[in-house]
Design a protein that fits this description.
Layout: H1 31-39, H2 136-151, H3 168-171, H4 176-185, H5 189-192, H6 212-227, H7 241-248, H8 252-272, H9 279-298, H10 309-318, H11 325-337, H12 342-356, H13 362-365, H14 370-380, H15 387-400, H16 404-412, H17 415-433, H18 438-454, H19 461-466, H20 469-479, H21 484-497, H22 501-509, H23 513-523, H24 528-541, H25 546-554, H26 558-576, H27 584-611, H28 615-622, H29 625-637, H30 644-658, H31 666-669, H32 671-679, H33 687-700, H34 704-712, H35 715-722, H36 728-741, H37 748-753, H38 756-767, H39 772-785, H40 792-796, H41 798-811, H42 814-817, H43 828-855
Helix pairs in contact: 8-9, 9-11, 11-12, 11-14, 12-15, 15-18, 17-18, 17-20, 18-21, 20-23, 21-24, 23-24, 23-26, 24-27, 26-27, 26-29, 27-30, 29-30, 30-33, 32-33, 33-36, 35-36, 36-39, 38-39, 38-41, 39-43, 41-43
Length: about 850
């Protein structure tokens, strides 16, 4: 519907524009839908989506969050190389050594007492049970003894090493033993598991140990292999020799590539990382790290199974001590590609968030394949076992999706399906355990924040539908309805998506969606940001889907909750509107609160208006005195000048409810009060308000008392004057009131007195062929006016009767009526729609009027009989 020209005075006739109001003006709607919506007695309401200001600071959680800081990871933290666990680079097959249970105690100068010394546990003696199963070592010894006994030889078994005393301090002897003990206290894992060096005994019964010469020769051999271009180093301490060796053993070709291509870069980076943090050093480190990533990627040396992975990571970790975002991100890309885990993964995700929360760094993430690696990491992390790194990784994406360019790139890289899969995993875990946790909540807050930004891109709507994101969000609402922050994020997503009809159908079909939305209103009545969005969502769901109207109305406590919210925010709005204007501080506060309260009222009243479209529900709401009284209180306390959208939405809702003429209608009981409240809008400069008020009068004027009231206030004269406005919709609503007024015989003379007959004929001539619905209403007025007519020239006027007859004859000729005006373009659908309206709406009443006018010619002689 075209916007009315409020600058046009009702008493002046403006230059006519023949362009029909039902031409296609909005994508996705046909001309027929536009006409039905504009002209039907019951109409849905449109309103703007709630405005969401951009957050000033990028934080992990919103600054307005009501959650305690103890329940969520921090947004600010220090981070450096020391926060990365070196063990995170160990192969997955490595085995960590457990710490020693009993630490050796250093000898003191004074003799220890039993109170000062913790005595070691005495080993349990071997079992004497004859039925005891034979272990591997005992079985081997038994076989050896049996073999020897068969030969009949007497064998002297080697003597075991002398067992140390139970108290190591008492067993210490001066000299070498003390040195050995001191050395072993600070020894490494190999030394702790290795026996001390002993002298060789005789050949018959000696226990031989590896000599220093053996160790020396092995070291020499290793050095010679390294110099020849081949080297094999063992894994990190604590790993199993066989697994670590197999992982890091390089073939001669791999070793040659490592020593000639990778090792020099690592050595350069190690030297540079020890220098000062000037610009040149940072630039060189960035360059060398990027080069390292490139050559390792080309040779497929990245990933969890990468050989010499630990050595590379240790060098990369040192780069994080420099305070440079670009260097941090390049290092993070390398660490991501090497698939770290554990504490290193957590620190890495914190690093990504730290870089991403600075808006100036957004362009750095668009370089190379950093975003791909982040998405891949999010896709592989388990939400139960890796909740903290997931929070920071997705938190970095939340920051980045606030940038219009980056969010477009992330959409193209299919981030949304990854988040949909994560949502499904979380919901599946919740359904299995039934225990929502704080860690899961923290992840969901980040995921929904990213989805909120992705929902801004219209191309993503298909992915939201195909990956069942809407259903997953409805499931989350069912579990976490008490969490205001999470519900606010979801409401922001749904408020965007429910602008699409298909999305509305999906949400409406979910079994718990309406129950969850009503529960949110019930649990968070004071959160205006959340309430306004939930009401907006409900308004979208009920705008075009009658099933949704039934579902919402039949949801337990739905109407009570809506009316309770209505009453609460109306009271808040009226309270703050009474603040004295001289109090400037209070005035600013009032303005903010007042705006929020009115925004909630606008969205909530829209829900009521949309529900009332359904005939069963509308009649019940019209009988609800609480609802009607709240609507009238809005009209009484607000003016259309200051609160135009609120007042106009309220009038449209009253118009919808006034359509129902049930016995218990609260509208019917208060119709005079409504008429008095709306009367002032007819003399207001706001054309929209005047049109909507006239629509209500079109329904209310069906009763005699309202017609008397309108006549006493000279509204009938005003309606005749509005026929001259030239605005199609103003003329339409004026005709609606005049149809009812002309049912009273005593009011009919006014139409002719105010030149209304001629004005109606002009309306028929100007708008007839482009608006058969309006043309039909003109004929209805004239039919009511001429109900008891005996002489048409006398009743209508001679010139008027002749002009009306000519017009009706032409308009009832289908060929003439369906001729498309020169300045109008109609598609086939519009032409068919116009033909249908012409046949069903116009022709019946026009034929009746023409027959009456021609049959009441009086003394005039027809032309064909004049001769």
């Amino acid at each position: 519907m075209a916007e009315p020209d409020i600058s046009t005075s009702p008493t002046r006739r403006k230059k006519l524009t023949i362009k029909p109001f039902y031409e296609k003006q909005r994508d996705g709607e046909t001309s027929a839908e536009i006409i039905n919506e504009a002209r039907t007695s019951l109409r849905t309401l449109r309103t703007n989506r709630p405005f969401t200001p951009k957050e000033d600071k990028r934080t992990l959680f919103s600054g307005t969050s009501t959650r305690s800081s103890h329940d969520r990871p921090p947004s600010a933290f220090s981070l450096g190389a020391r926060h990365f666990d070196g063990s995170g680079s160990r192969p997955s097959s490595a085995t960590r050594l457990l710490p020693l249970e009993n630490k050796p105690i250093l000898p003191s100068t004074s003799p220890p007492t039993t109170a000062d010394v913790t005595l070691p546990v005495i080993p349990k003696p071997p079992s004497t049970d004859p039925n005891r199963p034979i272990s591997g070592k005992r079985k081997a010894r038994a076989k050896l003894m049996h073999a020897i006994s068969q030969e009949g030889d007497v064998v002297v078994l080697p003597q075991p090493l002398e067992r140390r005393s139970s108290n190591p301090l008492l067993a210490c002897k001066p000299g070498a033993a003390d040195d050995s003990l001191q050395r072993r206290v600070h020894s490494g894992p190999k030394e702790r598991t290795q026996l001390p060096q002993e002298k060789s005994t005789n050949e018959e019964g000696s226990l031989r140990v590896r000599s220093a010469d053996s160790v020396s020769s092995r070291s020499t051999s290793k050095t010679s292999r390294t110099e020849s271009g081949y080297s094999s180093e063992r894994g990190s301490a604590g790993s199993r020799p066989e697994s670590a060796g197999n992982r890091d053993n390089l073939s001669p070709e791999e070793a040659l590539y490592w020593n000639t291509s990778i090792l020099p870069i690592l050595e350069d980076m190690a030297k540079l990382s020890q220098g000062s943090a000037d610009t040149d050093v940072i630039e060189m480190l960035c360059s060398r790290c990027s080069e390292l990533y490139r050559i390792m990627k080309e040779k497929q040396l990245l990933g969890k199974g990468s050989k010499r992975r630990g050595q590379v990571l240790k060098t990369i970790y040192k780069l994080l001590d420099f305070e440079n975002a670009r260097l941090h991100l390049i290092a993070a890309r390398m660490i991501l590609a090497l698939s770290v885990s554990g504490q290193s993964m957590t620190s890495l995700c914190k690093l990504l968030f730290k870089v991403g929360r600075v808006e100036e760094n957004d362009k750095l993430f668009l370089e190379d394949d950093v975003l791909d690696l982040i998405i891949s990491t999010v896709a592989t992390l388990d939400p139960v076992k890796n909740s903290e790194p997931l929070v920071y990784a997705i938190g970095s994406l939340k920051c980045l999706t606030g940038n219009a360019n980056v969010v477009q790139v992330l959409s193209e890289k299919k981030l949304l399906p990854v988040l949909a899969s994560l949502l499904h995993s979380i919901n599946l875990h919740l359904s299995e355990t039934g225990k929502p946790t704080k860690s899961t909540l923290n992840i969901l807050l980040q995921v929904t924040a990213v989805l909120r930004n992705l929902a801004d891109i219209s191309e993503n709507r298909a992915d939201f539908l195909s990956h069942q994101v809407l259903e997953e969000l409805c499931s989350v609402m069912e579990v976490y309805s008490s969490e205001a922050d999470l519900m606010l994020n979801i409401s922001r997503i749904l408020s965007k998506l429910t602008l699409n009809h298909e999305c509305c159908s999906v949400i409406g079909d979910h079994p718990t969606s309406f129950q969850s939305l009503i529960l949110i209103l019930h649990k968070h009545p004071n959160s205006s940001d959340l309430v306004v969005r939930v009401c907006f969502i409900l308004g979208n769901l009920t705008a075009h889907n009658d099933d949704c109207r039934y579902c919402l109305f039949n949801t337990e406590n739905a109407i009570d909750t809506l009316l309770s919210t209505f009453r609460s925010y109306l009271a808040s709005d009226l309270k703050h509107s009474k603040v004295h204007p001289k109090q400037e501080a209070e005035k600013d506060k009032k303005s903010t609160v007042d705006k929020k309260s009115q925004d909630v009222l606008i969205k909530l009243i829209r829900v009521i208006a949309n529900l009332s479209i359904n005939h069963d529900i509308g009649a019940l709401i019209a009988s609800n005195e609480t609802c009607v009284d709240l609507l009238l209180q809005v009209l009484e306390c607000h003016s259309v000048t200051e609160s135009d959208e609120l007042v106009i939405n309220t009038i449209i809702t009253v118009n919808n409810l006034s359509y129902y003429t049930v016995i218990s209608s609260a509208i019917e009981e208060r119709h005079l009060t409504i008429a008095r409240l709306l009367l002032r809008l007819l003399v207001n400069d706001n054309m929209d308000g005047m049109v909507e008020a006239a629509r209500v009068f079109g329904n209310l004027s069906r009763t005699q008392s309202i017609r008397d009231f309108l006549t006493s206030k000279k509204v009938d004269q005003m309606m005749v004057m509005l026929l001259d406005s030239g605005d199609r919709e103003v003329v339409y609503v004026a005709c609606g009131v005049l149809i009812n007024l002309m049912t009273d015989e005593k009011r009919r003379p006014l139409l002719k007195k105010e030149s209304g007959i001629g004005k109606l004929i002009e309306v028929l001539r100007d708008f007839g062929r482009t608006d058969w619905q309006l043309a039909a209403m003109v004929c209805m007025i004239l039919c009511n006016y001429t109900e008891k007519m005996k002489n048409s020239p006398e009743t209508l006027g001679e010139q008027e009767a002749s002009s009306l007859t000519d017009l009706l004859v032409d308009y009832l000729d289908e060929e003439v009526a369906m001729e498309i005006p020169d300045d109008v373009t109609w598609d086939e659908e519009t032409q068919e729609f116009m033909r249908s309206y012409w046949r069903s709406e116009f022709c019946p009443v026009a034929s009746q009027l023409l027959s009456r006018v021609e049959g009441c010619q009086g003394d005039l002689i027809p032309i064909d009989k004049a001769s």
